[in-house]
Amino acid sequence: MDNMLIVQCLSSLIASVAFCIQFNIKKNHIIVASIGGLICQLIFSFMEMNNISETLNYFISASSISAYSEFMARRLHVPVNMYLVIAIIPLVPGRYIYDAMITLVGGDTSGFITQAMQTFGIAGSIAMGVFAVSSVVRVFRTIMKLGI
After folding, report:
1. 63 and 30 in contact (C-beta within 8 Å)?
2. What does each of the 148 residues of the chain score in pLDDT, given as a tens digit?
């Protein structure tokens, strides 16, 4: 299992670097953004090893990487999306989308609906994780500006 974790994390790092190049991220930000993808995969894998429910796993992983992106963006004075989009790539439920399409093409409508609902649940968990952290940061920044 340890070798599998190393392979998954290394693959996420390489994929994140590739997306940085694809999205024309400046060279001095590629490392920080790619490390976000590595951290994302690491958190996801550890939680998966501890048998955390899939939906909660995606939510916590997305929340963690969103917090990382917020912190690094503030520290390096760049938009949060630059780090967040790259770091969240390992969480994209591509396998589930593929399985849903294969089921649909195979003619199993009820299987497709089940797969599609699972995919939408995962996507919703990711979105809610990002939204939750973004909202907390925005409220905190507003409170700090107002001096409350």
Report:
1. no
2. 578 888 988 999 999 999 999 999 999 899 999 999 999 999 999 999 998 899 999 999 999 999 999 999 999 999 999 999 999 999 988 889 999 999 999 999 999 999 999 999 999 999 999 999 999 999 998 998 887 7
Burial classification of residue 28, based on how many CB atoms lie within 10 Å of its CB (0-12 exposed, 13-18 middle, 19 or more buried) = exposed
Domain spans, the chain? 2-146
Pairwise CA distance, residues 129 & 123, whole Å: 10
- The helix/strand/coil state of 107 is coil
Whole-number Å distance between alpha carbons of 63 and 66: 5
